[in-house]
From TrEMBL:
Transmembrane regions listed in the UniProt entry: 76-96
Name the record gives this protein: Uncharacterized protein
Lineage: Bacteria, Pseudomonadati, Pseudomonadota, Gammaproteobacteria, Oceanospirillales
GO term, biological process aspect, one: methylation
GO molecular function, one term: protein-lysine N-methyltransferase activity
Keywords: Membrane, Methyltransferase, S-adenosyl-L-methionine, Transferase, Transmembrane, Transmembrane helix
Coiled-coil region(s): none
Source organism, top-level taxon: Bacteria
InterPro entries in alphabetical order: FAM173A/B (IPR026170), SAM-dependent_MTases_sf (IPR029063)
């Protein structure tokens, strides 16, 4: 029994260290979008997009999975740097047989946005600034940016939804082009 406990402890430490390392490297932890926020974000995409959907910093995959299930004919891609959240996302997508969903273990700043119409974000302010810089450099076909909690500085959102939760969480939708 002691060996099993040591193995579990070692796995927890390795996973924790891996997540801590990627958080320190990027300044953004892999946080899942929970509660009412994913539903509110889904409601802001009123019809299936003509282009794809990209989750910038997909964490554990929960948001990308919801969008892939809601829009089964739309290609959804998630970008995540942290190894274990990325791995969980890939395994969940395979278990759920979501053929329209892919996860890349890559920094979203290097994402290929060709053919992407909707960007999903649940990033810290620094991450949102990186998204904004990325879009200023090359917006591709991006028409909408939907952000959980954090706004794009200097841009006026088309819609701001305030959720009836403890934190009065805000969901922002920006028309980009």
């Amino acid at each position: 029994m002691e060996i099993a406990a040591l193995v579990v402890l070692a796995v927890v430490l390795v996973v924790g260290a891996s997540i801590l390392w990627s958080t320190l490297r990027t300044g953004m932890p892999p946080m899942p979008s929970l509660g009412r926020a994913p539903r509110a974000m889904l409601e802001l995409v009123e019809a299936p997009p003509e282009g794809g959907i990209a989750d910038m910093g997909s964490g554990w995959g929960t948001l990308a999975i919801r969008f892939a299930r809601r829009f089964p004919r739309t290609q959804v891609v998630g970008y995540e740097v942290s190894f274990f959240p990325w791995l969980v996302s890939v395994l969940l997508a395979r278990l759920m047989r979501l053929e329209n969903l892919r996860f890349h273990r890559r920094d979203f700043r290097e994402a290929d946005l060709d053919g992407v119409e909707v960007l999903l974000c649940y990033l810290m302010p620094e991450g949102m600034q990186a998204v904004q810089q990325r879009l200023e450099r090359d917006p591709g076909s991006v028409r909408w940016v939907i952000s959980h909690c954090f706004a794009l500085r200097g841009r006026e959102p088309e819609t701001v939804s305030e959720l009836p939760d403890l934190y009065a969480t805000r969901i922002y939708r920006y028309r980009y082009q």
